[in-house]
């Protein structure tokens, strides 16, 4: 398997995890717009607890987005710096897929069930993607989308997670019971990153880039 450091700051949480052959420890703090101050101390703390250093890792996994522009840039910058300094490859993981995986683990969503992740993208839009649970992991049923809430056109039963469900009255799909407070966790980024590692999906540090889905800056 692998030993991975995982970071996720695409939303209000600053989340860091250490994955060692399936065993994982995590530091997860809800720190809106304070990721710059929080992320490196969390990395130092989790590595110190494990008596590990960056060069002893195999790779660094990170939530590459879509999500908060500021959070994504902070995460990518930190990952690039750490990976370059320690000569480590990087594993870019979709933040929407990480949120779907977090939902699977926290809400005990079973095999074959579907999840509709919908995250507030600001500027009156949402990021969204549908997933099916396959072998305990989220399998995307289409491409990640950026659209108005009214354009989320899907039929059938879904577990509904993400901050975008605050627009429930504008979403054409059934929205009752949505978990609008659930945030993606680094443990999920680590689990998905481990899958990517086994599939030879690592990239060099200079390609550890955010995925925005939009060119304009949403956070001022």
Please name the defining characteristics of this protein.
220 residues; alpha/beta; Nucleotidyltransferase, domain 5; 2 domains; five-stranded mixed β-sheet; 4 helices; 10 strands; 27% helix; globular; disordered C terminus
Number of helices: 4
Instruction: Quote the CATH topology of the largest domain.
Output: Nucleotidyltransferase, domain 5
Principal-axis shape:
globular
Element string (H = helix, E = strand): EEEHEHEHEEEEEH
CATH architecture field of the largest domain: 2-Layer Sandwich
Largest sheet, described in full?
5 strands, mixed
Alpha-carbon Rg, integer: 17 Å
Multimeric organization: single chain
**Would you tell me the overall average pLDDT?**
94
Could you say how many structural domains there are in total?
Answer: 2
Overall description:
The chain has 220 residues and is α/β, with parallel strands linked by helices. It has two domains: 3-95 and 183-207, 2-Layer Sandwich (Nucleotidyltransferase, domain 5); 98-170, Nucleotidyltransferase, domain 5, CATH 3.30.420. Helix content is 27%, strand content 27%. It contains four helices and ten strands, in the order βββαβαβαβββββα. Strand 1 (3-8) and strand 2 form a beta hairpin. The protein is globular and about 50 Å long.
Topology:
Layout: E1 3-8, E2 13-20, E3 23-30, H1 35-49, E4 59-65, H2 69-86, E5 90-94, H3 95-107, E6 114-120, E7 126-134, E8 137-140, E9 145-147, E10 159-161, H4 186-198
Parallel strand pairs: 1-4, 4-5, 6-10
Antiparallel strand pairs: 1-2, 2-3, 6-7, 7-8, 7-9
The gist of it:
The chain is of the alpha/beta class.
